[in-house]
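Ops channel
N.P.: pipeline sanity check, posting one input/output pair.
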């Protein structure tokens, strides 16, 4: 029992010391510029979606969390959606979203969780926003979304810890 407790303590210490401190800082402008690259990286078209394939020389997973990790330089093959939520970001209110922030649904399974990159408000009423996302069937897209604005849809606005500006 004592060995189990010591092992758990060591694992907990390791898991809290890894990650955000090692993530390279990136400006909001650079994050958005990196996100845009996947819109045309596949011979002029979007990078296709896949939870098991990796894209380009950097080798990021072609799913939503791999895409956000790529844009934010969080290390290949990419963090998982739950890690982006729990470890790599902090909560913000929807009204405070800025370009390069993320909107995350951390609940459910690997096929139901989702994360997108906020670019800008779609209208002066802040009723929708332009976002970059990696989504099933479509691959990389740039479109207007409302995830996270209602406060009741399971999506949460977050600021990535390694983003500056």
């Amino acid at each position: 029992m004592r060995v189990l407790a010591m092992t758990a303590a060591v694992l907990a210490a390791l898991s809290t010391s890894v990650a955000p401190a090692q993530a390279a800082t990136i400006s909001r402008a650079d994050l958005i510029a990196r996100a845009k690259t996947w819109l045309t990286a596949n011979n002029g078209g979007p990078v296709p979606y896949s939870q098991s394939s990796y894209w380009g020389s950097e080798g990021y997973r072609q799913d939503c969390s791999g895409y956000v990790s790529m844009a934010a330089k969080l290390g290949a093959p990419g963090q998982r959606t739950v890690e982006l939520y729990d470890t790599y970001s902090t909560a913000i209110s929807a009204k405070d979203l800025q370009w390069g922030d993320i909107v995350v649904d951390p609940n459910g399974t690997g096929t139901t969780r989702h994360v997108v990159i906020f670019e800008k408000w779609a209208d002066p009423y802040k009723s929708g926003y332009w976002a970059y996302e990696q989504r099933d069937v479509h691959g990389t897209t740039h479109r207007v979304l409302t995830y996270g604005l209602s406060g009741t849809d399971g999506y949460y606005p977050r600021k990535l810890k390694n983003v500056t500006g």
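N.P.: looks fine end to end. The CA atoms of residues 60 and 70 lie 6 Å apart.
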